[in-house]
Amino acid sequence: MPAQPEGDPAPSDGALPASAVARAADRTLSLYVHVPFCAVRCGYCDFNTYTMEQLGDGVSRDDYHDDAAAEVRFARSVLDAAGAPPRALHSVFFGGGTPTLLPARELVSMLEQARESFGLAPGAEVTVEANPDSVTPETFEVLAGAGVTRVSFGMQSAVPHVLAVLERTHTPANVPRAVGWAKAQGLGTSVDLIYGTPGESVADWEASLDAALAMDSDHVSAYSLIIEDGTKLAAQMRRGEVPLVDPDDQAEKYTLADAKLTSAGFQWYEVSNWSRAAHGRSAEQNRSAHNLAYWRNQDWWGIGPGAHSHSDGVRWWNLKHPLPYTNRVREGISPAVGRETLDAETQYVEHAMLGIRIREGLEISGLRPEGRRAVAGLIADGWLDGPAALRGSAVLTDAGRLMADAVTRRLLDW
User: Fold this and answer.
1) 8-295: which CATH architecture?
2) How many helices (H) and strands (E) in the chain?
3) Per-residue pLDDT tens for 58-101?
4) Contact 21, 84 (CB under 8 A)
5) Which residues does the UniProt record annotate as the domain Radical SAM core (predicted)?
6) Looking at the chain, which residues constitute the CATH 3.80.30.20 domain(s)?
7) Coil, strand or helix at 239
8) Using CA atoms, how far apart are residues 218 and 266, in angstroms rounded to an integer?
9) In this predicted model, what pLDDT tens digit does every residue of 296-314 receive, in sequence order?
């Protein structure tokens, strides 16, 4: 797992500077709840997750919902003390790890605490990530009855040998079954795919896309496999046990994904995310509101070990291991271990990096002179949309989405 960021020590009472809440009335607030438990640790994963064998003595999954609920209450007290106006939650997202390793009623108890502490805004999105092998029809009945609106399924691939390289344990046939159970309860559904796994052919990837489309979901995420230092898969590549990731192969697979998804009625709204009009909702309504809050640089509070939070240019992050996290929460002490206040330069860079990835793009008028001057050349290269630029926005073309990082560097004059 990666080391935590460098930063200033976080205050034990969690107190926020006035700047973090000065514009709160004009900003949305979301809640991310990290569930750090997994049955098996996948070889490509560098998230802050643990099997019970890794955790050892002193940590129990049975008590986690109570500890997370305590941090939710703590979050509200910190925001109140800072003078932030009350804000109902724009979105709630249970991620991990594997949230559905916990009983559904424990997830519901955390959601009820969020509702009690903050309230949910009208139409608020509530998402639970799910492993297809850790759910039953009753799981979704309980979640839907408590106000969950959306389930995001970690499918990754429909091809057994690709799943084996990723060390995913679910059976491909379980994914459509689980999606069907969720849809039967009226829940929105998303399937998450990974492309570019060593040994995955273009035909394998096309089979996974076809399987995802056959599920009639509202939303598809397709992410290129990124090999992070410290993961088992990175070590296997260094030893030559599996081939290196091929960027050209990944580009071909992204193009194929976009073509098939577009043909099936999906619209891209972020470089790696597509939604469609389905089940009585528009494509815009079926976007992930929670992830859009990140890309639009809104405010969110991260609950749980290793979770990150952000409030208008102030970021902080919690202790990574569940045991010290639990001890602090139970003592009424902030579990945050580090914090940073972003300077104007960092905020500008992050605004450009995030904003260029979404369909609405960046307001050209908000770019610095060097960025505005770069727009014409990026249009000539076919990476930015000319008509959108005339309307005042820097929006990636289909070809530009493959070059999003290069576009960002040009706009920032790097």
Assistant:
1) Alpha-Beta Horseshoe (3.80)
2) 16, 15
3) 678 899 999 999 999 999 999 999 999 999 999 999 998 899 99
4) yes
5) 23-267
6) 8-295
7) coil
8) 8
9) 999 999 999 999 999 999 9
